[in-house]
Amino acid sequence: MTTSTLPVPDFTARIAERARRMNASAIREILKITQEPDVISFAGGLPAPELFPIEDVRRATDAVLTRYGAAALQYSTTEGHLPLRRWIAGRAGIEPQNVQIVTGSQQGLDLLGKVLIDEGDVVLVESPTYLGALQSFQPYGPRYVQLPTDDHGIDVGALEAVLKAQPAKLLYAIPNFQNPTGRTLSLERRRRLVELTAQYGVLVIEDDPYGKLRFTGEELPGLYDLALEMAGDPEHSHVIYCSSFSKTLVPGLRDAWLQAATPIIGKVVQAKQGADLHTPTLNQMIVTELVDDVMPRQIEIVKRAYGERARDMVAKIGEHLPAGIHHTTPEGGMFLWVTLPEGIDTQPMLARAVVRKVAYVPGTPFFALGGGANTMRLSYSSATPEQIDTGLKALGETIREVLT
Amino acid sequence: MTTSTLPVPDFTARIAERARRMNASAIREILKITQEPDVISFAGGLPAPELFPIEDVRRATDAVLTRYGAAALQYSTTEGHLPLRRWIAGRAGIEPQNVQIVTGSQQGLDLLGKVLIDEGDVVLVESPTYLGALQSFQPYGPRYVQLPTDDHGIDVGALEAVLKAQPAKLLYAIPNFQNPTGRTLSLERRRRLVELTAQYGVLVIEDDPYGKLRFTGEELPGLYDLALEMAGDPEHSHVIYCSSFSKTLVPGLRDAWLQAATPIIGKVVQAKQGADLHTPTLNQMIVTELVDDVMPRQIEIVKRAYGERARDMVAKIGEHLPAGIHHTTPEGGMFLWVTLPEGIDTQPMLARAVVRKVAYVPGTPFFALGGGANTMRLSYSSATPEQIDTGLKALGETIREVLT
Questions:
Q1: DSSP H helical segments within A238-331, as ranges?
Q2: Chain A neighbors of B191, CB-CB under 8 A
Q3: Which of A120, A234, A399, B169 places its Cα 20 to 30 Å from the Cα of A289?
């Protein structure tokens, strides 16, 4: 037995091909730059922490530990805490067997990618789309096709042309107050999207973390609701629904869920067994304790606050940003999207913005196949009126500097 | 817009190839059969819930919510709660950058599979090995090679022959009180295993959920410790260490960790971003609150209880089971392994055992490539003396019935 130095391992050579396709999240790297304390950051997408129902979580934890005792801290089933699955199923008009609890929506997307995407499968995504979904799907080797969008979401005429041109496995969409644009898909387009994808045999993943946070306008049925209504049965629906308690309660408990036909749920259960056995037991019980009384109240509080902040930000864009700039006007959620004149690149501009003590996320990372150099995402969810005023003034100055 | 019925989707045709390789856990299906209330089950592998420090968890949650407020319920970093990473690193003699928090060891195994295993890569496993690891790795398409074992763990002579015969990517091993056998790898073999794998350029995943639960015999250095000592630096170690707070505190919080060189940790961070963003914030803070005072006390309580139960089970095997049966005598952990005479198949025998109100897990599912028809795993961790006596009497009768 020797204690001499071992050969130095060549780790790079041992990384799997799929992991070579992974990159550090562009946003994550940007957030690091912009986290200096005196920078006003519209870059993050964090729910407003000052609104969190901390005392309710404390009370719920206490109640759950008293009621369930050791069972709250023991291993539990992969499918999830049955009372929580029942509550979700009841609200959606489906059965608990159509509901799977996941550790954050992000895990829902990862498991769906694992279960559905073969190397080279065509996955249709909005242009732009949620960066985290691209990250979840990426290791499974999808071939992305970007769907053109406008202020009412996906262009369904263009969708039909894309479906005619090639077979696709999946369409991934965020119909309500999309991340990153804040746009909402119109009702007419929702119906057409559901019909077209059913007709062409394409499964749809509807990602809906913000749906309950509508602060203006009329609530619209989701893609899952429409497919359920048209198909008449959750077992015949080609739409898979993904949502979360992160924006309606708190994100740090990591409680979210999927709704789908049982052949999909069954495979997701098997994938989740290998991925993390189950979502933490205590956390699922805490959420169950809060959904009936605290969550509706919390949703009202959050909607009011985000609505005020969104209106404020839209007003200050008008006041402080130069003319000729396009922005979305969200009806809910946490984000809006700004399009600057062609020729401006928001990625190098970020350094100048940070010098002026303001930060945003450049738009390009949200495009699966690139583009959108002149776009940016702004989050208003955790900004004060002073930050919105000062930050947008600084952003306006930055843009004027680049334009001259 | 029509509301006619949509075409029924063909879900089976849309499941990805990797997901077709997934199966429902054999154990999970067995546990369903054996969960009738009057069956004495040695099948589960659950930590004893009557020992859980429920009041400590309540107090810790309270303290954490008071100290951190909203930050305990907000999104947090993918790498994990820094004070917890520091604590783990300090104990291991490494840096926090070598530590990644994961949502249960199971997630650690899944992320390592995702980051390291290319389709067709040779993965060396003990024969038998932990079923959950096989489930985690399976979607990534490994080619398993089974390493022969005896009562002192992996046969390192046979390992050398295997390494000479073919290039391998990974060796997965549980050196302490292995699941399912309860066996411990001897010190001499540990050293040889670390040297051989380093020499042949094979990465090692050391899975160590039970290491702190040694109730008899002398503590041995882990493979990670030995590699660190021999390599002199965590950045040069080819061993990746995986452990958990599930057996030393409680499993339901799903807190575990990996230790590895930074090129591995870096890729795991990227994979985890797509997999679940981060492990629940509150849960990591609760565990951090408990590691210094509660956990050492808890480990003593659990060791004492499991030690008594293991000795009791070994005694009752001698008393109630027919002669000619081999069993392991664990020095820690939660399981022991019984080998019946050749020709007996413990899978069909289980139905007879359940009729006699006792249950175990047949051994075959723990073999990556099959085998072990005459073996079974018994768990003593959550059994009372009465259950051990009555259950083993019933098991003895079942075996005698099959032997005649």
A1: 262-276, 281-290, 294-320
A2: 1
A3: A234
